[in-house]
Amino acid sequence: MLPGLYRRLQELVAALGARYVLEIGPGNRPLVRGPGVTYLDVSHALLLPLGGQRVEGDLLAAPFLDGVFDLVIAADVLTHVPPARRAAAIDELRRLAPQLLLFHPEPGGGALAPPLGAEELAALVRARGLEVELWPVHLPGPRGLLRFGILLAHARSERAPAGPGGPVA
After folding, report:
1. Helix, strand, or coil here: 72?
2. Is residue 100 pLDDT above 90, yes or no?
3. Structural domain contains residue 53
4. What is the CATH number of the domain that holds 77?
5. Count of the separate structural domains present in the chain
6. φ and ψ at residue 43, rounded to 5 degrees
7. Structural domain includes residue 164
8. How many other CB atoms are found less than 10 A from the CB of residue 110?
9. Alpha carbons 16 and 7: distance in angstroms, whole number
């Protein structure tokens, strides 16, 4: 249903030029593939069909050395982190890489977390010392308009390339 959005996210990842990428919670359709990509998920079953490096583990205790990746991707992951643990989760993402790409559905939600909008998530990421670029995405869906936010975050000393060119309607 969202092939254009999926393609746009892949193009953004390619433009970032990251050699070593960690994708957290890739589900059955990871954004990136190829050498230098590692997948981390709490579900062994979701990792099984993926090729490449696969690590079963928890985002809040990621089993990797500091700064070992160039980019961490987390698509609809932080909605599943309880609100009291989100700052710690962002700190863990930041520990792993200088750049973060967060794809976030609106209004958020999920079984473990109340709704969290992309603007609220961007503010939380900024509060953790990162610069954030936020692009809203609006696409038609089977039950109405689907809204997402793409957040590109980087350490204040890093220079991130221009993102996906603004809002998508």
Report:
1. strand
2. yes
3. yes
4. 3.40.50.150
5. 1
6. -100, 115
7. no
8. 15
9. 14
Q: How far is CA 67 from CA 3, 41, 118, 146, 151, in A?
A: 31, 19, 25, 34, 20
Domain limits for position 50: 3-16+29-116+129-155
- Residues 38, 52: Cα–Cα separation, whole Å: 7
Classify residue 35: in a domain, yes or no.
Answer: yes
Mapping DSSP to helix (H, G, I), strand (E, B) and coil, where does residue 23 land? strand
Mean of the per-residue pLDDT values of the chain: 83
DSSP letter string over 75-101? ES-GGGS-GGGHHHHHHHHHHH-SEEE
Other CB atoms closer than 10 Å to residue 90's CB: what's the count? Answer: 24
Top pLDDT among 112 and 33 is at 33
Task: Give the tens place of pLDDT for each residue, 13-69.
Answer: 889 999 999 999 998 788 888 889 999 999 999 999 898 899 999 999 999 999 999
**Apex CA 94: angle with CA 93 and CA 96, to 5°?**
70
58 forms beta bridges with none
Q: Are 96 and 138 in contact (CB under 8 A)?
A: no
Task: State how far the Cα of 119 lies from the Cα of 160, in Å rounded to an integer.
Answer: 19
Q: Give a yes or no: residue 104 inside a domain.
A: yes
Joined together, the tokens standing for residue 70 give 């160039």
Helices (H), the chain: 3-16, 44-47, 86-96, 118-127
Mean pLDDT for 5-15 is 83
